[in-house]
Amino acid sequence: MKTIFISIIIVFFTSIFSTQATSQTPLQLVDSVVLCNGDSIQLGAPPCGFDFFDDFDPDIDSLLWSEIHGMANNNCGAVSLPNAMHFNGAVVRQVTTIALDCRWGGSISFQIKIAATNQAGCETADLGDDVVLEFSNNKFSWITINQYAAGSFPVFTQVTEPIPLFASQTSYFRWRQVMFSGADLDNWAIDDVRMDIGCCDTNCPPYQFQWSPPVGISNTSVSNPFFSPLVSTQYYVTVTSTFGDTIMDSVYIEVENNCCKIPTNLSSTSTPTTATLSWDSVKGSTAYQIQFDTGSMITSSPLLNAFTDSLFVYIDSLDTLSNYSWRVRAICGSDTSLWSTVDSILTPSPTPCAPPKNLNAAKIADSSATLSWDSSTTSIAYTVQVAKNILDSLNSIFITPTSSTTVVANLLPNTLYIWRVKTMCTYKNQLTSQYSEPDTFSTLASGLASLNNRTIDIYPNPSNGAFTIDMPETGYDIAIFNQEGKSIYKKQKCKTRELISIPYLSGGVYIVEATHHGSTFIGKVVLFR
Fold first, then answer.
1. Is the link from the previous residue into 302 a cis peptide, with omega within 30 of 0?
2. pLDDT, tens digit, for every residue of 261-287?
3. pTM for the full model?
4. What domains appear along the chain, each with residue ranges and CATH number?
5. 206-231 pLDDT per residue, tens
6. Is the peptide bond between 58 and the residue preceding it cis, with omega within 30 degrees of 0?
7. In this structure, is the dihedral angle defined by the CA atoms of residues 142, 55, 147 and 51, taken in order, positive or negative?
8. How far apart are CA 396 and CA 383, in angstroms?
């Protein structure tokens, strides 16, 4: 179930003393709302808009007051030490707040003391030397919220008053002593002035709320209930203030049984050349339409305009370090939602792929060889460079295999070749790695059989002239040839493991041939001196 919250702007009346006014409540409800069947919506007052507080410690907060005719001291005591706002002027004794946005209602609380015992700086107020709390929306016309009688507040007493229903976004509050005899007489003080502006508590004091009808509503006596009607319903609310005033408002909630919502929570992840787009499921949807385009806007002819029944799409062949934008809408049978907001993607910079490792030359013949290396998961191909003696671009053979093995042909017999390989990365612009460290191999003399890759085991290899040959079975004849194809050692009917000692040969690469019953196995051994 989806929950929608609508924050309602609040407008008030022009008379706090009307008893049966019928107009907008502090909620200022919209006239009507469209709701999908099965969803809920919250209507009502927004949370507290502003917290006004001054305890006059260490001094008066001048940013909260537009007019000040009092002083911060403890001549008449204080609640929160050390100071209260003390009034002792000879002509004017009042303090006025700045303009406050009070359309959401709320309450005012403060501590007040009107002197009742003679002491220096806190002389007893005479009867009639009362203090009033007043309110105005324009700072010219003032309405009394309450009057606090001299003799009734001999010690600091907390008072709480409701913000009037008709308060505006430029409301002022003024504490004023109506009559007094002069300086150092009829003193009074206030402390810990607080205004909770807005519907700050569950039941939104100082107002009482009553919603009807009680069907499809979470709570009929709170300021902002949840509504989930199954059919279209007109709801009414009556708001009663602590003054006994009542005001009414209403909202019509139209319930649609067949509505297709806009997909939400769009999300995207990207690599240098790919992107995966996803979104939340829409109730009742049968498919989704996705538009994907270059830049920050969707054009009339987007790069991709596709349909899917899943909650994601995968897009490849993108450019690195490029901006893309996309949006999605739901299809619910014959109904289609509006497009979602446009989401944007920046493909990241590619990480260069690593050069291949573990180069190996095998099946070496007089005019060909099989070259291999470790494969890379980020490659689309490789570039192999083969040359005689020196790797230069003019005299090299270049091969571009897609796997990590290739055969190089048309080589010269009995020749030393040097070769290397680099990876072509999977990015669209085909960035490549550095070349690997070079490796070498030598082709056989003309007519000599090719090497089978380790079909017989020779160890240690390289060797100082003494090495062992392991063969599949007994009875093999062994022959060893130099690079020119000349036989330099023979032994017949060997055991499965034969120790060979040829310390008299010079260092180099030698070919070992093992033959038995028409089967021939080829290997090579490297001698060092």
1. no
2. 899 999 999 988 899 999 999 887 889
3. 0.39
4. 3-47+203-256 (2.60.40.10), 50-197 (2.60.120.260), 267-346 (2.60.40.10), 360-442 (2.60.40.10), 457-527 (2.60.40.3080)
5. 677 899 999 999 999 888 899 999 89
6. yes
7. positive
8. 12
